[in-house]
């Protein structure tokens, strides 16, 4: 089986009033002394990142995700704050840049885009054998990335207001000049030439700013799928990761038998991603098979049907089916956040509910 792993970003919030706190340095200092996966600073001092080790099974990945969340939560609590699996902060915040020459250069170049960039995502890494195989995957998974965003949608509030989006993080992130879907590349050489041209343009600082919806990792021999919000529930992160691995395996199998790349205009992919960020799983998504509106659950099931052989071969079909059923029954993080606000009428209570669920 292909190994896979997950990076999750979390907000650091005050346990009393729910507001983000610039405590990353202290929290990471404590977390770094504990055993487990990698922990790292992010763009803002109000957030932290945890990363699993490469895993072979869903059980192993689920255990690592939960352990990493609990370890980071304990480290944060020791420093007087809590971690919250929030794609954006429901409460107003003027976030603090993490001290770093690279981040300072980004802030100088991109201005308000970086100043307001306090968002938390979930990135899934899936192993590939070569860059050529990886690019074959990137070219073939393009139509199916928007449903992944819908499954993970967990950022309905922005600066104290309901954004009317299920994932407003996706809107904020789209301001980045390299973010979004890509045209098919056709070869590893074409991919690398595109990246080099983007760096040589002197818009991006370095390859780390290649923010495609899915890319070749510049650190690991993996395809990195980057569209998802950080999931409120650990089970949803496991589901997203399982589907990502199955998408990669399905794409490789198509490539090996010479099945051609599905030629879909990038403009249409942008519309599908916008629809997913706006609706989540609540109403309709764009069905990538014919690019017409369809019930969100039907599109989710079409995605699972597309990757079913890979899931069956991995022995994961039943588990993924159960996780899918629970997600549809319970709803995404955006639905749960709005329900918490409807009950209490206070965004502080929304954050408190998220803090409890993050490590539940």
TrEMBL record:
- Catalysed transformations (reactions): L-cysteine + L-glutamate + ATP = gamma-L-glutamyl-L-cysteine + ADP + phosphate + H(+)
Question: Has the keyword Ion transport been applied to this entry?
Answer: no
One Gene Ontology molecular-function label: ligase activity
Q: What is its EC number?
A: 6.3.2.2
Annotated keywords: ATP-binding, Ligase, Nucleotide-binding
Q: Does the keyword Flavoprotein apply?
A: no
Q: Which SUPFAM superfamilies match?
A: Glutamine synthetase/guanido kinase
The UniProt entry's coiled-coil ranges are: none
Q: Which HAMAP family match?
A: Glu_cys_ligase_2
User: In UniProt terms, what function does this protein have?
Assistant: ATP-dependent carboxylate-amine ligase which exhibits weak glutamate--cysteine ligase activity.
Instruction: Please report which protein family the annotation says this sequence is part of.
Output: Belongs to the glutamate--cysteine ligase type 2 family. YbdK subfamily.
Specify the protein name: Putative glutamate--cysteine ligase 2
| UniProt source species | Pseudonocardia alaniniphila
């Amino acid at each position: 089986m292909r190994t896979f792993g997950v990076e999750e970003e979390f907000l650091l919030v005050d346990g009393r009033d729910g507001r983000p706190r610039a405590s990353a340095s202290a929290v990471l200092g404590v977390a770094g002394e504990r055993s487990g996966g990698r922990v790292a600073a992010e763009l803002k001092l109000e957030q932290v990142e945890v990363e699993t080790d490469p895993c072979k099974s869903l059980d192993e990945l689920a255990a690592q995700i939960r352990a990493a969340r609990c370890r980071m939560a304990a480290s944060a609590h020791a420093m007087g704050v809590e971690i919250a699996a929030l794609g954006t902060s429901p409460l107003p915040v003027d976030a603090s840049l993490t001290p770093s020459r690279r981040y300072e250069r980004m802030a100088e170049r991109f201005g308000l885009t970086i100043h307001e960039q306090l968002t938390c995502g979930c990135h899934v890494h899936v192993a590939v054998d070569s860059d050529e195989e990886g690019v074959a995957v990137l070219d073939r998974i393009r139509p199916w990335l928007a449903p992944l965003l819908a499954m993970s949608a967990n950022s309905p509030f922005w600066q104290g207001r309901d954004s009317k989006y299920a994932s407003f993080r996706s809107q904020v992130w789209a301001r980045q000049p390299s973010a979004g879907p890509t045209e098919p590349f056709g070869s590893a050489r074409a991919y690398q030439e595109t990246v080099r041209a983007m760096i040589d343009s002197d818009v991006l600082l370095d390859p780390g700013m290649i923010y495609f919806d899915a890319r070749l990792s510049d650190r690991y021999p993996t395809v990195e799928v980057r569209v998802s919000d950080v999931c409120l529930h650990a089970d949803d992160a496991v589901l997203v990761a399982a589907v990502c691995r199955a998408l990669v395996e399905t794409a490789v199998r198509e490539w090996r038998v010479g099945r051609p790349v599905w030629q879909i205009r990038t403009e249409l992919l942008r519309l599908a991603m916008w629809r997913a960020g706006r609706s989540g799983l609540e109403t309709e998504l764009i069905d990538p098979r014919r690019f017409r509106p369809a019930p969100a659950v039907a599109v989710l099931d079409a995605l699972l049907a597309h990757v079913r052989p890979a899931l069956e071969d991995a022995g994961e079909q039943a588990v993924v089916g159960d996780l899918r059923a629970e997600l549809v029954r319970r709803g995404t993080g955006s639905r749960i956040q709005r329900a918490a606000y409807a009950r209490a009428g206070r965004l502080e209570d929304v954050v408190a509910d998220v803090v409890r669920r993050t490590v539940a």
